[in-house]
Design goal:
Length: about 475
């Protein structure tokens, strides 16, 4: 006798399923989102006719899947070479970060190269997108614009226009008729994404989908959305800065450790091939409390300036304020400086920040933070043209970091004269020169500070009692 299907319960936000009703989703922690959904009886799969016979992999043609430039160099860099025909790309980011501006620029550049492009907007009217295109210079005859929120209408536009590039802004605003739920729900997003990906594969159309993010920064909707697409891109940036970064979270056609840099202005978005100048301040004279770190964003070395301010305080709990830096790493560096370098900061307020909105989360910036803090405490400026690279251990040792030659080469290219890097534990080696830059090795943070003239004896530390 056939078994009666047991009822199941599904979260309307993320698609999580459970055998019994609960008030709070066990996956996304949303309250009141679990509803009953009858379990469907799945028929047993049968063998059917194949669409195309299997062939040896060496005989599969690849000419139709060659990279094609999008006209935006930094976007091509992140994608691994450009747009691939038939690829499905998901671009996610916070509201107002510039997702629509970036994709309108890519669509306009593709249309300018003679390729027919279709831009479907579900969040704005066609006239609003036209105004932005006028402002950014993105009006071309081969760029077609449609304002639709129905999946059937979007597919009809694809049939009529026959584009090479399809942009859907956004997938959460498109609804499919006959599918339960409202646009943006789990079922609707799954169906819309599956239909658009299916059209992209069958018609060899490069499709870019814009996705919303939740308040914690993750992509909204079911997790299956990230699985069905070929590429997942994250567009991020601070609201107080024009600088934007594009990261690849998933890429079937290239590396996932590439980063693209952009400058978002009122007249559009432009690629930034060398963003180091945005994160390094040009001082007319040496200022205590500053040091330049060489960090890696993906595979691209970037120089960023770290600034520190140390002031005496009479408060029982001194302040530890950071901007663009990891607060836990700063606390660890402060403990190492006090324990192994004799720099007492338990009675001082410490403020540490980066320039230009840069975010330094890599441990390789520990030495630059330590140099900036020691310089701010002693009141002695670090020598001009010095970059510090290295991770600090709890014992005060300097640990080597990955891709050190690339970091040193980038510092030399930008005119720095000295780079302090981790060295052997048996003592500092004789400095060597790389492209005009002197590389100085130090086994621990105390040796590095002494080489830069920032040891505890450089100047009497400013304590609360002395001031």
């Amino acid at each position: 006798m056939a078994r009666t299907p047991r009822p199941s319960f599904r979260c309307a936000e993320c698609g999580w399923e459970t055998a019994k009703w609960v008030g709070r989703c066990g996956e996304c922690q949303a309250w009141g989102s679990v509803v009953q959904a009858a379990a469907a009886v799945t028929p047993r799969a049968q063998a059917t006719a194949v669409t195309s016979p299997a062939v040896p992999i060496g005989q599969v043609p690849v000419e139709a899947s060659r990279f094609r430039s999008s006209g935006v160099p930094e976007l091509d860099r992140v994608l691994g070479g450009g747009l691939v025909p038939g690829a499905a790309i998901l671009l996610a980011g916070e509201p107002g970060v510039g997702k629509s501006t970036l994709l309108l620029e890519a669509a306009a550049q593709t249309a300018a190269s003679g390729e027919r492009t279709l831009y479907v907007t579900g969040e704005e009217s066609a006239s609003q997108v036209r105004l932005r295109a006028d402002r950014t210079g993105g009006v071309h005859d081969q760029l077609y614009l449609a304002a639709e929120t129905d999946l059937g209408a979007v597919l009809a536009h694809v049939e009529e226009v026959g584009p090479t590039l399809l942009v859907v802004d956004s997938v959460q605003t498109i609804g499919a008729a006959g599918v339960e739920g409202v646009p943006g729900g789990v079922t609707q997003v799954r169906e819309v994404a599956a239909a658009l990906v299916r059209v992209a594969k069958t018609r060899n159309i490069t499709t870019i989908l814009v996705g919303h993010v939740t308040k914690d920064g993750s992509i909204a909707g079911p997790r299956v959305l990230e699985h069905v697409v070929d590429v997942v891109l994250q567009f991020e940036g601070e609201r107080t800065s024009r600088f934007r970064m594009l990261r690849a979270m998933k890429n079937r056609f290239g590396p996932v450790d590439e980063v693209g840099c952009f400058d978002l202005a009122s007249d559009g978005i432009t690629a930034v091939a060398d963003p180091t100048g945005l994160f390094v301040e040009n001082h007319h004279h040496q200022v205590p409390g500053t040091c330049v770190a060489v960090t890696l964003e993906g595979r691209r070395p970037l120089l960023a300036e770290v600034q520190a301010l140390v002031t005496p305080t009479a408060a029982e709990r001194p302040r530890r304020t950071t901007s663009g830096l990891d607060g836990s790493r700063i606390a660890m560096v402060l403990a190492v400086l006090q324990q192994h370098c004799g720099i007492r900061l338990h009675a001082h307020d410490v403020f540490a920040s980066t320039i230009g909105g840069a975010r330094l989360t890599e441990p390789a910036s520990d030495l630059a933070v330590a140099v900036a803090l020691a310089s701010a405490t002693t009141g002695v400026a670090a020598p001009a043209g010095v970059a510090a690279i290295g991770e600090i251990g709890l014992a005060g040792e300097l640990r080597r970091v990955r891709d050190l030659p690339q970091r040193v080469a980038e510092a030399a290219r930008l005119g720095f004269r000295t780079a302090v890097v981790p060295g052997r534990p048996d003592g500092p080696r004789r400095p060597r020169t790389v492209d005009g830059l002197q590389v100085v090795e130090a086994p621990d943070v105390g040796t590095a500070l002494r080489l830069l003239g920032l040891g505890a004896g450089a100047r009497r530390l400013r304590s609360a009692e002395a001031d």
